[in-house]
């Protein structure tokens, strides 16, 4: 019997809670002024949300376009270098006998490339005679020698380059290993 009393008591408490909780449904006799104000706020919210979504889409489109054309100026400058290389190849095809002029032209193109890289904050990594650094050097060989200290770069096979403070390509090097007598 105690269980029956407890069950009836629990049901009565639940019904009392239901009666004390206000209804979430709007009442039919709300103030029209409040309804108009609520509608205005809703309209404002919807307009602002639409503006926000449009701005977000516009920013995404601008970002994609920026990424797509970010290197346009650099590529345009490299096209001038490419033109000079084409002229150099055409001169070589004519079996031109003035090798000094051909060499001078090639050196001029290399200087043009070097200036273009320098202008864009690209610089070579100084390797030979420096301690081996795995972040900027890639050891291809190691050679025993007494001409260099242990762990020092003694020869460079391919230059490495930095773009600002970031390694773009590591230098491919030969590293000295102390001779054991």
For this entry, give a set of tags.
181 residues, 3-stranded mixed beta sheet, 4 helices, elongated
Describe the secondary structure blueprint for this structure.
Layout: H1 2-20, H2 32-69, H3 72-93, H4 99-119, E1 122-124, E2 137-145, E3 153-158, E4 161-163, E5 166-169, E6 171-178
Parallel strand pairs: 2-6
Antiparallel strand pairs: 1-4, 3-6, 4-5
Helix pairs in contact: 3-4
Summarize the structure.
With 181 residues, the chain is α+β, with helices and mostly antiparallel strands. The protein has helices at 2-20, 32-69, 72-93, 99-119, and strands at residues 122-124, 137-145, 153-158, 161-163, 166-169, 171-178. A three-stranded antiparallel sheet has the order 1-4-5.
Describe this structure in words.
This protein has 181 residues and is an alpha+beta fold. Among the domains are: 72-120; 123-178, Nucleotide Exchange Factor Grpe, Chain A, domain 2. 55% of the residues lie in helices and 18% in strands. It is built from four helices and six strands; from the N terminus they run ααααββββββ. A hairpin with a 2-residue loop joins strand 4 and strand 5 (166-169). Helix 3 (72-93) packs antiparallel against helix 4 (99-119). It is elongated and about 110 Å long. The N and C termini lie far apart (102 Å). The mean pLDDT is 84.
Structural class assignment: alpha+beta
Which H/E pattern describes the elements? HHHHEEEEEE
CATH architecture group name of the domain at 123-178 = Roll
**Residues in β-strands, percent:** 15-25%
Question: How far apart, in Å, are the first and last alpha carbons?
Answer: 102 Å
**Rg estimate, integer Å:** 38 Å
* Spatial arrangement of strands, main beta sheet: 1-4-5
Judging from the principal axes of the Cα atoms, what is the shape?
elongated
Average per-residue pLDDT, rounded, comes to: 84
């Amino acid at each position: 019997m105690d269980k029956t009393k407890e069950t009836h008591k629990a049901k009565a408490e639940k019904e009392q809670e239901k009666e004390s909780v206000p209804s979430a449904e709007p009442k039919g006799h709300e103030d029209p002024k409040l309804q108009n104000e609520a509608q205005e706020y809703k309209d404002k919210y919807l307009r602002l949300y639409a503006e926000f979504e449009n701005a977000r889409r516009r920013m995404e489109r601008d970002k994609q376009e920026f990424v797509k054309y970010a290197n346009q100026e650099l590529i345009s400058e490299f096209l001038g270098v490419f033109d000079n290389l084409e002229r150099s190849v055409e001169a070589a095809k004519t079996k031109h006998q003035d090798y000094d002029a051909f060499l001078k032209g090639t050196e001029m193109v290399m200087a043009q490339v070097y200036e273009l890289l320098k202008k864009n904050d690209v610089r070579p990594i100084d390797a030979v005679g420096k301690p081996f650094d795995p972040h900027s050097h890639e050891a291809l060989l190691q050679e025993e020698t007494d001409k260099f200290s242990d762990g020092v770069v003694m020869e460079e096979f391919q230059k490495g380059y930095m773009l600002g403070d970031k390694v773009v390509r590591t230098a491919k090097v030969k590293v000295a290993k102390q001779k054991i007598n």
